[in-house]
């Protein structure tokens, strides 16, 4: 009886030890899935949870400074996952599978013709509602024709955004990034202090 118990105890111990090893295996820890997921017809699915990624910055090209003809009069909130920020800071390139999200946010109800309003902190621009989302994805094989990055737009309008998007033509997106920021991995790092100045978090 005692021997039987001992065998059972040892057996249970072995199984739990094995499962601990499996769960903490370094291979499992290193394998990260890219948030770029595609349908069978090649359309990308709208990324989720990106507002909890690292916030890189918010360029703003308001109507008041663009003759009321701004293509994107909203803030451009730019997000990327932390491991990809870390990799860029070390190597100057983003890992394969990196997704960068640019979500547009309107300026809060303007009270002046230039789109601004006055608040306790002063006259200026304050953040209104979300109003669109553009995405870039690094995948050197899939997007070999556009310098290794694919560009997608899930709509330029209030929530909800499109659930899926086809890759945008090079003339609409990638062309401008290739012409201007090919040297910084197709990304306008000069506008994002975390990537530009490398001062850390
Ligand atoms: C005429 C040039 C131009 C075109 C065309 C263009 N972009 Fe960009 N893009 C920029 C500039 C400049 C920035 C950074 C400053 C800003 O957001 O205003 C940027 C930033 C981005 C970012 C944030 C990451 C980064 O590269 O800095 C994404 C994502 C992005 N664009 C996607 C797109 C998509 C998708 C399209 C097509 C629908 C597109 N872009 C078309 C000029 C362009």
Tell me what you see in this structure:
This protein is of the alpha+beta class and 201 residues long. It folds into two domains: 1-30; 32-196, 3-Layer(bba) Sandwich (Chalcone isomerase), CATH 3.50.70.20. Helices cover 24% and strands 23% of the residues. It contains five helices and nine strands. Strand 5 (117-119) and strand 6 (122-124) form a beta hairpin. The radius of gyration is 23 Å and the shape is globular. Mean pLDDT is 90; it is low at 13-25. Heme C binds at residues 59, 61, 76, 78, 100, 102, 134-136, 151-153, 168, 172-173, 176-177, 187-188, 191.
Keywords:
alpha+beta, 2 domains, Chalcone isomerase, five-stranded antiparallel β-sheet, 23% strand, binds heme C, 24% helix, 201 residues, 5 helices
What's the layout of helices and strands?
Layout: H1 2-23, H2 26-30, E1 44-45, E2 54-57, E3 75-80, H3 82-91, E4 99-107, E5 117-119, E6 122-124, E7 127-138, E8 149-153, E9 164-165, H4 174-181, H5 193-196
Antiparallel strand pairs: 1-9, 2-3, 3-4, 4-7, 5-6, 7-8
Bound molecules: heme C (HEC).
